[in-house]
Amino acid sequence: MSKNPIISVVTVVFNGKDFIEDTILSVINQTYKNIEYIIIDGGSTDGTIDIIKKYKDKITFWISEKDDGIYDAMNKGTIKARGEWLNYMNAGDKFYKNTTIEEISEELDKMGDVVVIYGDTEMVFDKHNKYIRHAKKDGHKYHHQFVHQSSFIKKDIALKYPYDTSFKIAGDTDFFTKLYNKGYKFAKINNIISIFNIIGVSSGLNFKMYLEEIAIISKYSKFETVKFTLVFLIKKLIYAIFPYKIAKRVKIIYGKKYLSRDS
Questions:
Q1: Domain 7-203 is classified in which CATH homologous superfamily?
Q2: What is the pLDDT of residue 237?
Q3: Averaged over 171-196, what is the pLDDT?
Q4: pLDDT at position 68 over 90
Q5: Which one of 80, 109, 172, 196 is separated from 127 by 20 to 30 angstroms, measured CA to CA?
Q6: SS3 of 41-60
Q7: Burial class (CB in 10 A: 0-12, 13-18, 19+), 143
Q8: How far apart, in whole angstroms, are the C-alpha atoms of residue 71 and residue 10?
C-alpha cells in the first residue's frame, strides 16, 4: 500500500442538473490532494453537461454517452480509474465533510488485505428530516450493511468483479454479497462518510428492487429468501395502512427514533 494513494471518485449521472453541482463541489473541495475525479454521464439533455463543463478543469475525466444503466456507467468509471481505491459517489449524494477523504486516507495504511472499507451515512429524506445510519460491523452474507456511497473498494477487486448490468437497482448488493461470500475482508471505520439522498432510484419499498434482491439472496439461502419476503410484505402492508408521515412518527418503518427535525 503506497503512502497517500490515489483515490478515485466516480460519479454517474443522467439528467441530474438539479443536484449534480452539489456532488461535484463535495468532491473537488476535499482537502485530500491525491484525488482523481471521474464523471460518467449517460447522455444527459437537461443541462447537466453545462454544469460538468463549468468544473472541467477540476475533473480528471468525464464522458457523456448512452449507457446500459447505473452499473454499466459505474463499470466504465472503474475501467478509467487509476486509483488504488474507488468510491462511487452518485449524483445527488455528497461526502459528509470536506475532510472526509483525508481522514479515510489515514486509515488505508492499516487495512492490510482488506478490500472494502466502509462507514456510517447521513440519510436525508427532505430538508427537515434526516438520520445517521450506523453501518453494521459484519453480516454482509445476504445484504451489505452499509450504503455503497460510504464505502471505498480496492480498484483491482472492482475490475475483477465488475457490476452485473442485468441488475438495474440492486447491483451493489450483488457485488458486495459476492465478495463477502468469496471470503474477501471488509472493515468498518467509525466515520460518517457520505450524505445520501434517500429519494432516488432504490429508495422506498420498490417492488423491482425487491425482485432483484430476492434473486441475489436466493443464491445463498432459501431460509433468508423466505424471511426477506415476509419482512418486505409486512412493510408494504404498513405503507398501505398508514400514511408515510404517520408510519415514520410511530417508528413502524425504521424501528428506532432515527429521524430528527432541523430547526
A1: Spore Coat Polysaccharide Biosynthesis Protein SpsA; Chain A (3.90.550.10)
A2: 78
A3: 95
A4: yes
A5: 172
A6: ECCCCCCHHHHHHHCHHHCC
A7: middle
A8: 12
pLDDT of 205 strictly over 70: no
Amino acid identity of 86?
Answer: L
pLDDT one-digit tens code per residue, 106-124: 888 788 899 999 999 998 8
CB pairs under 8 A, 24+ apart, for 137-140? Answer: 137/188, 138/186, 140/176, 140/177, 140/180, 140/186
Here the cell at position 163 is 457490476
Kindly report the pTM of this predicted structure.
0.86
Q: What is the domain partition of the chain in residue ranges?
A: 7-203
Q: What is the DSSP string of 69-106?
A: SHHHHHHHHHHH--SSEEEE--TT-EESSTTHHHHHHH
Q: Is it the case that residue 251 has pLDDT exceeding 60?
A: no
Put residue 139 in one of left, alpha, beta given phi > 0 → left and psi -120 to 50 → alpha.
left
Residue 102 has pLDDT above 80, yes or no: yes
Q: Which residue has the cell 430538508?
A: 127
